[in-house]
Amino acid sequence: MAERCAVIGIGQTKHAESRRDLSLPGLVLDAAIRALQDANMTWKDIDSIVIGTAPDMFEGVMMPELWLSDALGAAGKPIFRVHTAGSVGGSTAVVASHLVQGGVHEKVLTLAFEKQSESNAMWALSPAVPFQPQLVAGAGGYFAPLIRSYIRRADAHPDTGCMVAVKDRQHGCLNPDAHLHLDQTLEEVKASPMLWDPIRYSETCPSSDGAVAMVLVSDNHADRVQNPAWVKGTSVRTERTFFAGRDQVNPGAGKQCAKDVYDEAGITNPMKDIDCAEVYVPFSWFEPMWLENLGFAEEGEGWRMTMEGKTKIGGEMPWNMSGGVMCTNPIGASGMLRFAEAARQVRGTAGQHQVDGAKVALGHAYGGGSQFFAMWIVSSER
Amino acid sequence: MIDARKATERDFAEIAVRSRKSAMDNPNAHIKGETSVDAILDEPYISSPLRKSMCPPMSDAAAAIVLAAGDTANELVKRPAWIRGMDHRTEPHALGQRDLTSSPSAKLAAEKAGVGKGKVDVAELHAPFAHQEIILREALGLGDDVDVNPSGGALSANSLMTAGLIRFGEAASRVLSGEADRAVAHTTSGACLQQNLVAVLEGE
């Protein structure tokens, strides 16, 4: 694509179990205004709006992009919605970056949101047979057998998932916008109730209200800020949900998506060429699983990186510096939060959870039954 | 529209008659056939002033179109329908903030897409309710010489979320076949034409 694309504004709400103080339009407006201020822009600078959120039934608002047009100053502009389940925040940012790279628009506001307090996503995901195959109570019921399979295949240390939970929650304590601020010990996490064996209560993400917004611009507007994050690569991949022959523990679509985004960004060795990553880990065990899927570790070895502390801030390859999905999970926004946190790292604006000298970062999102993947690589260098 | 003296119920009925008649040439249409303005004006109101035949059916359907760039398009087909302009605009959601007898977002999208830059042979307008065709003709600046909805339009087959892509495909197919040199496709979403997309398709 012809044009370069830069992130010049990032804004997010304070995330919480319930933002009763804000309506849905208020929630997206709060994130959008913060992003515009960060970009030194006003509403009239924006050419178009790309919005993403999870399935409508999560909040019971059909086609929320129509309703939210008013709050987002969209009258007279294009606004459209992207929808790819849990990965939607990531694929929304990818679509927005393509509008800039393709020369369709020069200044795009992209945002994603979820107000989980207005519904019950777990049971929205769990209609009874025969309407869909039984998920046994929400996403955890779907993913638990995959995690058990991973532990068996990799012969992983049983504490790995709990170690991720402790680490991500420690990181979350450094992030004032995070929903959970929990200083937990390994023993406390291990003692928490088992929900979907082997996933304990403390190894799951929370249900959050929140929104995130970014301003993406073409080359000739990037100098509105001193520290743009340049989009070096984007990729989206998909595979079937219930094909018996697919490897759901280490999905092919995730590997392909990673290869594609690395090729576009010129990354040959992620451990060497990437400084840090924000990766969609809604259940703690997905950190070692995705370390392998994304090529940061050999197959069967991802859990060792976690156990050795390499994925902590200050470690060899920090993952989820913001606390990640384990601390903040407004579903539709969770993917874009990963993309936004990656951009904050290379802009040097990640505050207490900044990785020193981060220049290249990966943002990652996945959704559905580990079948939708979206990724981008951002860099401080044009 | 009636209170604003922009149209009469008879105008709506004429659009329904023409659409159902055009649909007779469309093997994929859901509702088609000869009917008369008087017969439609004898139907009971569904919601005044709209009568049954001025409203769309509820249809099942899927649609797909293939896009290709530059030389690839020329290799695949003899006469590609080139997308010369395309634009998408929205309006406020709240009905009270809008003049529902006009469509400023469709007008703006048509200007940006370049509808007025040449003669339009065919237009496929996503107007599931008969009166919307009048609003859209005005917004897009289409004269009486334009063949509107030769497929029968959404009044003859309305599979909601696919109806817009079908408009796009119907307009493109008339350029592909050589029946038209310049076609306009329009699609909408949201209550009372809140969002509108307009595209201009041309042969070589």
Describe this structure in words.
The complex is a heterodimer of chains A (382) and B (204). By secondary structure, chain A is of the alpha/beta class. Chain A has helices at residues 24-38, 64-68, 88-101, 121-124, 138-154, 160-172, 186-191, 252-265, 270-273, 286-293, 302-307, 331-347; strands at 5-12, 48-52, 79-82, 107-115, 194-196, 199-200, 209-218, 229-238, 276-278, 360-367, 372-379. Chain A has a domain at 5-121 and 207-224: Thiolase/Chalcone synthase (Peroxisomal Thiolase, Chain A, domain 1). Chain A contains twelve helices and eleven strands. Chain A starts with a strand and ends with a strand. Chain B has one domain: Peroxisomal Thiolase, Chain A, domain 1, CATH 3.40.47.10. Chain B is an alpha/beta fold and 204 residues long. In chain B, strand 1 (45-47) and strand 2 form a beta hairpin. Chain B has six helices and seven strands, in the order H-H-E-E-H-E-H-E-H-E-H-E-E. A five-stranded mixed sheet of chain B has the order 3-7-6-4-5. In chain B, strands 1-2 form a two-stranded antiparallel sheet. In chain B, 30% of the residues lie in helices and 17% in strands. The model of chain B has no long low-confidence stretch (mean pLDDT 97). The A-B interface holds A 63, 66-70, 74-80 and B 87-94, 97, 104-105, 108, 189-191, 194-195.
What's the structural blueprint in terms of helices and strands?
The complex is a heterodimer of chains A (about 375) and B (about 200).
Chain A: E1 5-12, H1 24-38, E2 48-52, H2 64-68, E3 79-82, H3 88-101, E4 107-115, H4 121-124, H5 138-154, H6 160-172, H7 186-191, E5 194-196, E6 199-200, E7 209-218, E8 229-238, H8 252-265, H9 270-273, E9 276-278, H10 286-293, H11 302-307, H12 331-347, E10 360-367, E11 372-379
Parallel strand pairs in A: 2-3, 2-4, 9-10
Antiparallel strand pairs in A: 1-7, 1-8, 4-7, 5-6, 8-11, 10-11
Helix pairs in contact in A: 3-12
Chain B: H1 9-22, H2 37-41, E1 45-47, E2 50-51, H3 70-76, E3 82-90, H4 104-113, E4 122-124, H5 130-140, E5 147-148, H6 163-176, E6 182-189, E7 195-202
Parallel strand pairs in B: 4-5, 4-6
Antiparallel strand pairs in B: 1-2, 3-7, 6-7
Helix pairs in contact in B: 1-5, 4-5
